[in-house]
């Protein structure tokens, strides 16, 4: 596992693949035989696209969800046989690659379909598509009242195969709203059946839906994202039913120690003033590294399992912590910023920033060490 030798720089991101497998197994046990689409958008939520893809592929995951065609091309060059769902429209000039690499686009409008068909005719090829229905997100997707026309068009096209019909639930923390939206979606599926349209896959389940709801047998595919990486957003005052483990950890170290006298101020704007003589440690990590500046002054990091409170404003590449009187530290002492002992849950609550935002910002730009 982690030791000081692992940390060659001032900052180390550790990705624990055992924890990823643990989370994957929890999902599999919950959903039974349904097909999993592992969501890898945003550089696998800051965990590293290629390594996470290779690991999940080795665990028999066949479908992957992306929003960036460059990422899709990267993965297809590693394994041309994998199936990739493109969650949003690709740029018009990339449609030729959509067909060439046999990607599976989410579609929601005729203009996109016509462009895809035109390219299929040029390449003498056929493409599988998933029709994306909007049931309340008001993001990418066709309104449910207009969806039958487009589904019928796809069904009758010689270049298109309606492999899937899907939607996205915007408010799984609100049970009543979610149930109503699911009922609308199920009613639409019934309409398709009456028109003799039978997609192979039907999917609506994001992380919140997988964990907090009983899934309809009609939903035979799921799209986990956040729960793969160890975090589960449950309805208020409800503890998560499953024990997910954080996959990403972030460590740094103390690079400088100094004494501050009572009355002296620390960092920009002097928002912290020492009430007594104290010792502080300088840590080379800040908001450039994804640490939100609004946790300044009262949040903490861990050093030797002791809480060390941040004092003063978090800087671009530095943070300052108070070292408790009974804690022995030295230059080079390890600092835990995100770990299994101090998960993103804490930073998310304190900063009022989502797990998604924090993970993506912390994982950005960095080399990571993978443990299995």
TrEMBL record:
<dbReference type="Pfam" id="PF01168">
    <property type="entry name" value="Ala_racemase_N"/>
</dbReference>
<feature type="domain" description="Alanine racemase C-terminal">
    <location>
        <begin position="247"/>
        <end position="371"/>
    </location>
</feature>
<keyword id="KW-0413">Isomerase</keyword>
<dbReference type="InterPro" id="IPR029066">
    <property type="entry name" value="PLP-binding_barrel"/>
</dbReference>
<dbReference type="InterPro" id="IPR009006">
    <property type="entry name" value="Ala_racemase/Decarboxylase_C"/>
</dbReference>
<dbReference type="GO" id="GO:0008784">
    <property type="term" value="F:alanine racemase activity"/>
</dbReference>
<dbReference type="GO" id="GO:0030170">
    <property type="term" value="F:pyridoxal phosphate binding"/>
</dbReference>
<feature type="binding site">
    <location>
        <position position="139"/>
    </location>
    <ligand>
        <name>substrate</name>
    </ligand>
</feature>
<feature type="binding site">
    <location>
        <position position="316"/>
    </location>
    <ligand>
        <name>substrate</name>
    </ligand>
</feature>
<feature type="active site" description="Proton acceptor; specific for D-alanine">
    <location>
        <position position="41"/>
    </location>
</feature>
<dbReference type="InterPro" id="IPR001608">
    <property type="entry name" value="Ala_racemase_N"/>
</dbReference>
<dbReference type="Pfam" id="PF00842">
    <property type="entry name" value="Ala_racemase_C"/>
</dbReference>
<dbReference type="GO" id="GO:0030632">
    <property type="term" value="P:D-alanine biosynthetic process"/>
</dbReference>
<feature type="modified residue" description="N6-(pyridoxal phosphate)lysine">
    <location>
        <position position="41"/>
    </location>
</feature>
<comment type="function">
    <text>Catalyzes the interconversion of L-alanine and D-alanine. May also act on other amino acids.</text>
</comment>
<comment type="similarity">
    <text>Belongs to the alanine racemase family.</text>
</comment>
<feature type="active site" description="Proton acceptor; specific for L-alanine">
    <location>
        <position position="268"/>
    </location>
</feature>
<keyword id="KW-0663">Pyridoxal phosphate</keyword>
<comment type="pathway">
    <text>Amino-acid biosynthesis; D-alanine biosynthesis; D-alanine from L-alanine: step 1/1.</text>
</comment>
<protein>
    <recommendedName>
        <fullName>Alanine racemase</fullName>
        <ecNumber>5.1.1.1</ecNumber>
    </recommendedName>
</protein>
<dbReference type="InterPro" id="IPR020622">
    <property type="entry name" value="Ala_racemase_pyridoxalP-BS"/>
</dbReference>
<dbReference type="InterPro" id="IPR011079">
    <property type="entry name" value="Ala_racemase_C"/>
</dbReference>
<dbReference type="GO" id="GO:0005829">
    <property type="term" value="C:cytosol"/>
</dbReference>
<dbReference type="InterPro" id="IPR000821">
    <property type="entry name" value="Ala_racemase"/>
</dbReference>
């Amino acid at each position: 596992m982690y030791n000081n030798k692992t940390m060659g720089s001032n900052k180390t991101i550790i990705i624990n693949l055992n924890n990823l497998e643990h989370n994957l197994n929890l999902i599999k046990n919950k959903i039974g035989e349904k097909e999993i689409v592992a969501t890898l958008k945003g550089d696998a939520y800051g965990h590293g696209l290629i390594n996470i893809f290779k690991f999940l592929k080795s665990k028999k995951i066949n479908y992957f969800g992306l929003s960036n065609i460059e990422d899709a091309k990267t993965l297809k060059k590693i394994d041309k046989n994998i199936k990739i769902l493109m969650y949003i429209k690709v740029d018009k000039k990339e449609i030729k690659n959509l067909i060439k690499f046999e990607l599976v686009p989410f579609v929601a409008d005729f203009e996109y379909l016509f462009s895809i068909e035109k390219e299929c005719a040029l390449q003498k090829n056929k493409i599988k598509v998933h029709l994306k229905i909007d049931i309340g997100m008001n993001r990418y997707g066709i309104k449910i009242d207009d969806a039958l026309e487009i589904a019928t068009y796809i069904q009758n096209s010689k270049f298109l195969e309606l492999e899937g019909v899907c939607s996205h639930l915007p408010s799984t923390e609100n049970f009543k709203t979610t149930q109503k939206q699911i009922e609308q979606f199920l009613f639409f599926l019934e309409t398709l059946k009456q028109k003799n349209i039978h997609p192979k896959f039907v999917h609506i389940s994001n992380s919140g839906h997988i964990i907090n709801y009983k899934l309809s047998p009609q939903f035979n595919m799921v799209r986990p994202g956040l729960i793969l990486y160890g975090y589960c957003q449950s309805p208020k005052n409800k503890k998560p039913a499953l024990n997910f483990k954080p996959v990403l950890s972030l460590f740094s170290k103390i690079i400088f120690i100094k004494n501050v006298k009572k009355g002296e101020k620390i960092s920009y704007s002097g928002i912290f003033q020492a009430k007594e003589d104290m010792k502080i440690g300088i840590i080379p990590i800040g908001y450039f590294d994804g640490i939100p500046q609004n946790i300044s002054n009262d949040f903490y990091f861990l050093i030797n399992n002791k809480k060390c409170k941040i004092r003063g404003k978090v800087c671009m590449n530095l943070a300052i912590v108070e070292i408790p009187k009974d804690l022995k530290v030295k230059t080079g002492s390890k600092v835990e910023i995100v770990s299994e002992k101090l998960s993103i849950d804490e930073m998310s609550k304190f900063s009022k920033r989502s797990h998604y935002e924090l993970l993506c910002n912390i994982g950005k730009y960095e080399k990571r060490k993978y443990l299995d």
